[in-house]
Write a structure and sequence with these properties.
Elements (H helix, E strand, L loop, with lengths): L6 E3 L3 E3 L4 H6 L8 E5 L5 E5 H4 L6 E5 L6 H14 L3 E5 L5 H14 L3 E7 L2 E6 L8 H25 L2 H30 L4 H4 L6 H25 L10 H26 L2 H25 L6 H32 L7
Parallel strand pairs: 5-6
Antiparallel strand pairs: 1-2, 3-4, 6-8, 7-8
Helix pairs in contact: 3-4, 3-6, 5-6, 5-8, 5-9, 6-8, 8-11, 9-10, 9-11, 10-11
């Protein structure tokens, strides 16, 4: 750490000299321009102007051997997408047509803004065409939460009505939530790596990235629980439960309210909404405990009780994930201590 004094020049301008070693490492010389960006913690970020926006796109080449496992290959591809690469080239042997088809279909289904721009006999080239300016972070989170909440609503409706078609549709929508999840994590990774774009992404400081990363994971888990409920529909007979099925719908509606209010609190950094959301979660837990007692009454088959206990657990977890998001919103409103 170097301490440098502020000097005044010309009567109106304040000047701080830059360390010579930093100037050399950054490849700068006299009369070159740098950007000085004020940060939320009252510090200044000095960025060589040439490095703020690179003309060349970041690129990586991934080799996929003949015996590559499909899921492993997809996870590898997604990891580089999340890391922020603009162009990802896959080298796939011509004999691995099954792997090629699987990756092409999965990329289109699970990732936002990435297109296959070239395809040859030995590989494919993809390019990410959407950035943080095309779909701002908070807007993406709101859309992701709306889809996940809708999945919960339709999954419970399918459970109540026995609609297998609706249940299947809910399961398919899980991929849509995953697309937003991966896109948002990519944005957050880019913001952590380049502090100059934090405000452009829609955040105030680098510490916000961790909070939002945890929040979107919670939303992604909500969608997973909705899909789990939908997968149980073929195995359940709601007529055996009578009024309990309707109570599950009421509990689900309250869980969705917790989630929606929590996400709104996170986007707006509203502590009042966040605390209201957390308090509502307690009511959901009370409803869960009451219905669990109802399930234990004589006359119900043990298998039916087990299936519906899984449903209740998933509905409760929706509210608990909402409460987690609300707590993150409260944490993000706390001011950082002065580090100087």
């Amino acid at each position: 750490m170097e301490i440098r004094k502020i000097q005044i020049t010309g009567g109106n301008s304040y000047v701080v000299s830059l360390p010579k070693s930093w100037v050399k490492d950054a490849g700068l010389k006299a009369k070159d321009a740098v950007l000085v960006l004020p940060q939320a913690d009252m510090s200044l970020l000095v960025v060589p102007k040439a490095n703020l926006r690179k003309e060349t796109k970041s690129e990586v080449v991934l080799e996929m051997p003949d015996n590559s496992d499909r899921d492993t290959a997809l996870r590898t591809f997604i990891s580089y997408y999340l890391a922020g690469y603009d162009v990802i080239k896959l080298r796939i042997p011509g004999s691995s047509s099954g792997l090629r088809s699987h990756l092409k279909e999965a990329i289109r289904r699970k990732l936002i803004g990435i297109e296959i721009v070239e395809e040859t006999s030995n590989g494919i080239t993809t390019q990410c065409l959407s950035g943080y300016s095309d779909l701002p972070l908070k807007k993406a989170i709101e859309r992701m939460a709306i889809i996940a909440s809708g999945m919960v609503q339709d999954a419970v409706a399918a459970l109540h009505s026995g609609d297998l078609g609706l249940a299947e549709e809910v399961s398919q929508r899980d991929d849509e939530v995953d697309r937003f999840y991966h896109f948002i994590v990519r944005q957050l990774n880019m913001a952590v790596r380049n502090r100059a774009i934090i405000e452009e992404v829609g955040l105030l400081a680098a510490r916000d990235c961790l909070g939002y990363r945890l929040a979107v994971k919670s939303i992604e888990r909500v969608a997973d629980h909705a899909a789990s409920i939908a997968r149980l529909v073929p195995s359940l007979r709601t007529d055996a439960l009578g009024k309990i099925a309707k109570e599950i719908m009421k509990m689900s509606e309250l869980s969705q309210k917790v989630l929606g209010q929590a996400v709104s609190a996170l986007v707006e950094l509203d502590t009042k909404k966040a605390n209201e959301s957390i308090n509502l979660t307690k009511k959901v837990i009370e409803m869960d405990e009451k219905m669990t007692g109802e399930l234990l009454r004589p006359g119900l088959e043990s298998s039916t009780v087990g299936w519906f206990r899984l449903v209740l657990e998933s509905v409760r977890r929706v509210a608990e994930y909402g409460s987690d998001i609300a707590e993150i919103a409260v944490d993000l409103t706390a001011k950082e201590p002065n580090s100087f």
